[in-house]
Amino acid sequence: MAEYNINDIEKKWQDYWKKNQVYKVTTDPSRPKFYVLDMFPYPSGAGLHVGHPLGYIASDIVARFKRLKGFNVLHPMGFDAFGLPAEQYAIDTGQHPAITTAQNIEKYKEQLNNLGFSYDWDREVQTCDPSYYKWTQWIFMQLFNSWYDKKTGKALAIESLIEILNQQGNAGLSAACDDDTPEISAEEWKAFSDEEKAAFLLKYRLTYPADSMVNWCPALGTVLANDEVKDGFSERGGHPVERKKMKQWMMRITAYADRLLENLEKLNWSEALKEMQRNWIGKSYGCELDFKVVGKDITLTAFTTRSDTIYGVTYVVLAPEHELIETLTTPDQKEAVDAYVSAAKNRSERERMADVKTVSGVFTGSFVVNPFNNEEVPLWIADYVLAGYGTGVVMAVPSSDDRDFRFARHFDLPVRCVIEGTEEMADPTEKKHGKMINSGILNGMESTDAITAANNYAAEKGIGKPKVNYRMRDAVFSRQRYWGEPVPVHFKNGIPHLIDEKDLPLELPPVDEYKPTETGEPPLARAKDWKYKGDFDYEHTTMPGWAGSSWYFLRYMDATNDREFVSSDAVKYWNEVDLYIGGTEHATGHLLYSRFWNMFLYDRGFIFHEEPFRRLVNQGMIQGRSNMVYKLKDQNKFVSEGLKDDYEVIELRADVNMVDHDILDIEAFKKWRPEYSDAEFVLEGGKYKCGVVVEKMSKSKYNTINPDDMVSKYGADTLRMYEMFLGPIEMSKPWNTAGIDGVAKFLRRFWMLFFDDKGKYRVNDENPAAEELKVLHKTIKKVQDDIEQLSFNTCVSEFMICLNQLTQLKCYKKAILQELVVVLSPFAPHLCEELWHHLGNADSVVNAAYPVFNPQYVQEASFEYPIMINGKLRAKISFAVDAPQDAMKETVLGNEIVQKWLDGKAPKNIIVVPNKIINVVV
RNA sequence: GCCCGGAUGGUGGAACUGGUAGACACGCAGGACUUAAAAUCCUGUGGCCGUUGAGGCCGUGCGGGUUCAAGUCCCGCUCCGGGUACCA
To answer: In the complex, which nucleotide's C1' lies nearest to the CA atom of residue A278?
Structure first.
């Protein structure tokens, strides 16, 4: 007697897998490797909802499938454990964030294990664990000890730079460095004091402290990276963010801008994602042009991508933050300029973004000279010019640029058209390319040619030079927070030095409170007697969340190594991630920083692959499906959805967990809130029907579905298959529990192939019939092809078709079922493990081999051709697959139905597509 | 504004490089079993007209086009989702 008791079976096998270490992975060069990775989660207090596991289920299916196919599969899981929520909780309650984090991680692991994932937990990483962040700090130290040589196109040890400086200074050097790096000779370098040398080297190091404009979030008490700010608000918490100048550790990611951009070509990522990274890097080819200030010994350099329009310049604009504003302002304009500049500075980033349409600016009183025609044009200040992009100076061409045009109209500045055909247009910026006019030496050229000509001319005359510009800036690496990796740096006379490698990890010190100090210092400044060697101040900021997540995929390869961050052997074997599944929200953060660090470690010879993630798939979001109820305006009375238009109603959300197929469980609803306990209901057909709204899944919308509830009700196998059955993995879709019955029914009926309704085992050893083998092998083929394409929903359909046919054939043959169990096991591992053992196997199904597809079994002798008349299906006729076309045509024309449609006429043409279709053209 | 996706029955979705549109499932309707319900099983299910195993017409967001043949390719739109934004 055997019963399909889901919860018992699933528990039993989860315990078995754990006890027998079925998912333990070792480095084994004798076998081909496959690395399947999920973006590791931040363990929040809320636990998982049903949307989170979508990607995990998909990757687990791939991992299990590849294993059956003979690959040595690395499929690890860990936790991105430093983060704001735990710290915020610590500030509120005084509890150390490590405690909350550990609790949350336990909960997550339990939830993940309930779903039957095949992780090797021995390789788990937690970014907040000192044994892990020791190596995050170590990587930071390598970055500090490196510079980027543009000649060889890679990062090198800082010692090689020192050697060059000793020999020749930095004259012949092509390196990524600060913009303000002066040119020095070897003699000057040698004459530097040690401190001066150290300060100078900071201009080249790949991580360095700098005074920079940062996104300061007062509510969180920290700075945020550009990708952590959305529309002027912090991504976590939604607090306002403002601009502030602070000393920050920076990462010289701009050194890698070109390689990060170019390598995208080689990656098997979605075009959308690559495009996001391209836009973020924002490479543009242009030209820097020099504008001399009239009457002053000052030259302003403007960056432009449209040097062809230089004759259309009617004014030049500075960013309000430009440092020369004071000297460039004439006395009579001083008052106006001061007022404008201070107003612009005090405007928060948010405000500035909010009214993009408002035109504002002020005249400096100065004029500058157009280097091409020596014309004097006015110099303005306006906040549409960003200090952080290009040079902070824009040559304005109102006839070709929308913003310049709006500005010129507002302040009544002249507009000069330089493109043929724009002279008479109300808005000449609508035509951006064409033949140049009013443009001196450029007249008559097409704009694209004129750009090259103008650039060459500028270079020849020494009035400018071609320049490649990037939108991406160096990444801010400091956070004024407690719950992050300490930076392994101490200060001597204000100059940062690394601590000794043997002193790693530099552990987080205890503090009395997790808040900033009264003087605004970060929380680490509270740590008592926290000094390096008892003497030197440590860095008080901590690393950002993306530090630990930028290399965790390497650590999994060798997670417990305490001598290296990863051994060469391990990284040579596992190298890049073959399949990475995660959300699109990390497009410009994690996925860019990880590529940067990976590339750096590759340059320095620590690892041997340049890109970390060969193939990447973004799983879609599972949206919430909220159920609405309609309350009468002044009464405690609810009307059913179909009747709501007849009343004046207020739309309210009901918890989806008390709604089934959009029918409200009225008793549960009454108990939900005391104020509803005596509510009345207007029903339709005896039922209360709820409305439906698709929106984000969130607790406040009462539309979250907890996977634990689903697992206890339907089982993990059902949940796994249902999430896959919902649709293509990369598409967003609302969660609707209604459809889950179909999958639950499938698994129960699959069980019924093995056990009759009395629970009696009915599998026999009979030889399979041709028809049964055909069904089996069709499924073997379809499922393996679709898994490779990550088309999991069609796999589930195929299983259902297969089951329907086997049920019809009353096939209870071991030869068929045993192979099918293996094919199904990546999707429903618990059920299949149970059945696998019933079939008499002692080992785990995980260690089975995927059946080999045999095309002979699925070959057909004949094909039933759809016969079309003028493209419309009219009849069907079977022919042997290798039937000669002439004979087929003859038969078709002789067919009664075809005759009827021909109506005595001769056909114009007959198209026969072998084993596809026959079309008769009349 | 710009850049990516997407639009197929009441619903989720199938349809490989153009070749039988609606697989599979949910829901719904009818039936069987049952004292009853649940569960299970069977049948039907794009729309319209007509029939009761005739058949026909229309149908993949909208309007054109290419083709023997278009959900699929081309041109022009509409709407929805995501990203991004004074980037010179």
So the answer is: B3
Residue with token string 């430093």: A82
- Residue A639 to residues A350, A657, A667: CA-CA distances in angstroms? 43, 19, 15
Nucleotide with minimal C1' distance from the CA of A866 is B20
Strand partners, A629: A652
- The residue length of chain A stands at 922
Question: How confident is the model over A474-524, as pLDDT tens digits?
Answer: 888 988 889 999 999 999 988 999 999 999 899 999 999 888 887 778 899
- Before A522, cis peptide (omega within 30)? no
Using DSSP bridges, classify how beta strands A242-251 and A315-318 pair: parallel, antiparallel or unpaired: unpaired
Instruction: Dig out the tokens for A712 from the structure.
Output: 């206890």
Can you give the distance from the CA of residue A861 to the C1' of nucleotide B51 in angstroms? 37
pTM: 0.91
Whose CA is nearest the C1' atom of nucleotide B5?
A272
The whole-number Å distance from A711's CA to B72's C1' is 39
pLDDT tens-digit map of A39-85: 999 998 888 888 888 999 999 999 999 999 999 999 999 999 998 88
Sequence-separated (6 or more) residues with CB below 8 Å from residue A122 = A24, A559, A560
Beta strands A284-293 and A362-369, pairing class: antiparallel
> Helix or strand or coil: residue A211?
strand
* Distance from residue A732's CA to nucleotide B12's C1', rounded to whole Å: 12
Residue A785 contacts residue A834 (beta carbons within 8 Å): no
Say how far A596 CA is from B60 C1', in Å: 44
**Residue type for A471, please?**
R
Show Cβ contacts of residue A843 under 8 Å, excluding neighbours closer than 6 positions.
none
Q: Where are the alpha helices (DSSP H) in A183-263?
A: 186-191, 194-201, 257-262
Of residues A280, A312, A818, A190, the one with CA closest to residue A586: A280
Nucleotides of B under 7 A from a protein CB: 3-5, 11-16, 19-21, 23-28, 40-41, 56-57, 68-70, 81-88
Instruction: Decide: helix, strand or coil at residue A252.
Output: coil
Structure tokens at A673: 């809130």
pLDDT tens-digit series, residues A660-691: 777 788 888 888 888 888 888 888 777 788 87
Question: Residue A434 corresponds to which amino acid?
Answer: G
For A642, the token pair is 């179909």
What does the alpha-carbon distance between residue A547 and residue A140 come to, in Å, rounded to a whole number? 9
DSSP A490: E
By C1' distance from the Cα of A917, the closest nucleotide is: B19
Spanning CA of A733 to C1' of B62, the rounded length in angstroms is: 25
In tens, the pLDDT along A376-421 reads 999 999 988 888 788 889 999 998 888 898 899 889 999 999 988 8
Give the DSSP letter string of A663-691: EE-HHHHHHHSGGGTT-EEE-BTTB-BPE
Q: ipTM of the predicted structure?
A: 0.94
| Distance measured from the CA of protein residue A695 to the C1' of nucleotide B77, in angstroms | 28
Is residue A482 within 8 Å of A514, Cβ to Cβ? yes
CA-to-C1' distance for A745 and B13, Å? Answer: 18
Give yes or no for a contact between A532 and A496, defined as CB atoms under 8 angstroms apart: no
- Name the nucleotide with the smallest C1'–CA separation from A915: B19
Among A388, A364, A359, smallest CA distance to A377 is for: A364
By the 8 A CB rule, do A806 and A772 touch?
A: yes
